[in-house]
Specification:
Tetrahydropterin Synthase, Chain A, alpha+beta, rod-shaped, SPFH domain/Band 7 family protein, about 60% helix, single chain, Band_7, coiled coil, 3-stranded antiparallel sheet
């Protein structure tokens, strides 16, 4: 009524009232009455906003690529933004120009120029894998951008959601990657088979080495056994030699003993023969009859009877036939 209006800004809107070219009121989330005929209002949104984008660019090797992502920014200096753009609103709260909407376009163009410069330095394969590096690059360069600083804009975050080639290039890359994967699969199968062969070879070598070691051990055992038998045989030979030498020594001693016994017996026999010879020499000068008488004195009855029978058979008085009855012989023999 009478040009008096009321306006109330929310907590994310920086509201300014101009009267006669000067600021009369300003702030975030304020409300007041004003005269529409003499006052001008400007509203600057200061909340963070998200700008999705998708840019069609070229890589360093002239391959088309699409970069898709999202920017998050806010107006940190509303006064600077109002100096560069027109944020005037009417009594219904509508912007009187399109400058507020063009703000987002300026931010996107700045990001697009930076992304284009970055991608033109990379080949297709590098570009498709450059999302982390591109995000760090954008955050750094957007923070240093003079155009955004003049607008009072601060970029809060950058997200790259996809970097894709054209469908034809994608199919070609898929085919190439598929062939590479198949080749790697074949290589893996070959390597696995080769590894199996190598492992089997190693097992065979281990088995052969074990067999050789066993045979060598058996040979060492046989050699040790033969050496032991040889040592035993040598010792047995030495014992036999010692035993033989001992037997030879014993035989020599026995022979020496026998020789000594023979010499002793010979000497004894010579002494006995010499005694008999001397005795016989003494008997040669004695009358045989005397000797006979001397001998008969020492004879037993049997010897005397035998001598009598012998005398009957000798000399001139020998008897041709003599019969002796058993009774006579028994009487002559007496009790014997």
């Amino acid at each position: 009524m009478f040009g008096l209006n009321f306006i109330k800004a929310d907590a994310s809107t920086y509201l300014v009232e101009f009267r006669k070219g000067r600021k009369t009121r300003e702030g975030v989330g304020i409300s007041f009455y004003y005269f529409g005929m003499s006052s001008t209002l400007a509203a600057v949104p200061v909340s963070s906003r998200e700008l999705p984008f998708i840019f069609s660019l070229q890589s360093a090797d002239f391959q088309p690529i699409n970069v898709q992502g999202q920017l998050t920014f806010h107006i940190r200096a509303p006064e600077q933004a109002m100096q560069m753009l027109n944020f005037t609103i009417d009594k219904k709260g509508k912007y009187v120009t399109d400058d507020a909407q063009s703000l987002e376009d300026r931010v996107l163009r700045t990001a697009q120029v930076l992304i284009r410069d970055y991608m033109q330095q990379l080949g297709l394969r590098q570009a498709l894998l450059s999302a982390p590096g591109l995000m760090a690059f954008l955050l750094e360069r957007l923070a240093e951008s003079e155009s955004l600083a003049k607008l009072g804009i601060s970029v809060l975050d950058v997200a790259i959601t996809a970097i894709t080639p054209s469908p034809e290039t994608s199919r070609a890359l898929e085919a190439e990657v598929r062939e590479q994967l198949l080749k790697e699969s074949d290589d893996a199968i070959y390597v696995r088979r080769l590894s199996g062969i190598e492992q089997e070879k190693a097992v065979k070598e281990k088995e052969l080495a074990t067999e050789v070691a066993i045979q060598r051990k058996k040979q060492e055992i046989d050699e040790a056994r033969i050496e032991a038998e040889r040592s035993v045989a040598q010792k047995q030979f030495l014992m036999d030699q010692e035993r033989l030498q001992a037997s030879i020594g014993a035989e020599k001693q026995r022979g020496e003993l026998i020789r000594l016994e023979s010499d002793n017996l010979r000497a004894q026999a010579d002494a006995t023969a010499y005694g008999i010879e001397q005795q016989l020499k003494a008997y040669q000068s004695v009358d045989p009859e005397v000797l006979k008488a001397l001998t008969m004195g020492k004879m037993t009855p049997e010897q005397l009877i035998a001598q009598a029978f012998d005398n009957l058979a000798r000399g001139d008085n020998r008897i041709g036939n003599l019969n002796i009855s058993p009774d006579l012989l028994q009487s002559l023999m007496g009790d014997r």
